[in-house]
């Protein structure tokens, strides 16, 4: 016969076992939730890395912004310094002449459409800012760009100031994916992915590229310059990836901006 004390102990033991079972089940579900969250976070991180990859078009705690071409062009958050005072004719056209190790690349800039951008690039070129710098990034899939303008050659450098976005509606209405086509021959500003974060980095489009209308289009490459770009692109990247340093090194030996 079971005594009342034995019965109480049995009930207490059963209660304890039920509590332990519930706790074990709660721990199991918690581990499962963490695993799902971890996997989802990994996917998000991988996606962001793929999109910025560089930054068509990628620079934290540095001076400038970059472009974000893997799925677009991007840069790091720039520091804030005053941009150059306006010193150009905002009704004129200018030519940006890049004498590079791969050949000469020229493009026309219309100051009436992008006065802040043209003014900044002329100011920088007059100070030899771009001389002896490398075009550090080539993208050969999704978008088709060569990215230049970083004095460090890493995708994280810039002039120490930012300039506003300009001319963003010139490429037409975005499609359902929120993209427009940046035609072959276009030169556009790289940025951090946020408005008004352009600096000195820019990208040269050698084949029509779908991108968000977030990158100031400010130049048009001449036919000879486009052929130079196409030859650089044909050689691919240094490691065979779709986004990386160009296999054919492109160093800007001298950059000049002149009024037409």
From TrEMBL:
The chain crosses the membrane at residues 34-57. Its EC number is 5.2.1.8. Keywords: Isomerase, Membrane, Transmembrane, Transmembrane helix. Residues 100-257 form the PPIase cyclophilin-type domain. SUPFAM superfamilies: Cyclophilin-like. Pfam families: Pro_isomerase (PF00160). InterPro entries: Cyclophilin-like_dom_sf, Cyclophilin-type_PPIase_dom, Cyclophilin_A-like. GO terms for molecular function: peptidyl-prolyl cis-trans isomerase activity. The keyword tRNA-binding does not apply. The keyword Transmembrane applies. Residues 1-31, 60-86, 236-260 are annotated as: Disordered. Residues 1-23 have a biased composition (Basic and acidic residues). PANTHER family: PEPTIDYL-PROLYL CIS-TRANS ISOMERASE B-RELATED (PTHR45625:SF3), PEPTIDYL-PROLYL CIS-TRANS ISOMERASE-RELATED (PTHR45625). PPIases accelerate the folding of proteins. It catalyzes the cis-trans isomerization of proline imidic peptide bonds in oligopeptides. This is Peptidylprolyl isomerase.
């Amino acid at each position: 016969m079971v005594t009342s004390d034995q019965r109480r102990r049995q009930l207490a033991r059963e209660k304890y076992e039920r509590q332990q079972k519930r706790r074990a089940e709660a721990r199991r579900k918690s581990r499962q939730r963490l695993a799902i969250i971890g996997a989802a976070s990994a996917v998000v991180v991988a996606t962001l890395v793929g999109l910025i990859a560089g930054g068509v078009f990628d620079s934290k705690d540095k001076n400038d912004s970059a472009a974000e071409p893997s799925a677009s062009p991007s840069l790091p958050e720039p520091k804030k310094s005053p941009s150059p005072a306006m010193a150009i004719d905002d009704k004129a056209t200018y030519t940006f002449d890049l004498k590079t190790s791969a050949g000469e690349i020229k493009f026309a800039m219309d100051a009436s459409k992008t006065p802040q951008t043209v003014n900044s690039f002329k100011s920088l070129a007059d100070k030899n800012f771009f001389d002896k710098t490398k075009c550090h990034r080539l993208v050969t899939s999704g978008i088709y760009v060569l990215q230049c303008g970083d004095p460090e050659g890493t995708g994280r450098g810039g002039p120490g100031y930012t300039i506003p976005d300009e001319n963003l509606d010139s490429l037409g209405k975005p499609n359902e994916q929120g993209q427009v086509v940046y035609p072959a021959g276009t030169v556009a500003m790289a940025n951090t992915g946020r408005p008004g974060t352009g600096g000195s980095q820019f990208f040269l489009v050698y084949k029509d590229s779908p991108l968000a209308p977030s990158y100031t289009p400010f130049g048009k490459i001449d036919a000879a310059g486009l052929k130079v770009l196409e030859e650089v692109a044909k050689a691919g990247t240094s490691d065979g990836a779709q986004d990386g340093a160009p296999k054919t090194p492109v160093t800007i030996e001298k950059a000049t901006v002149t009024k037409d």
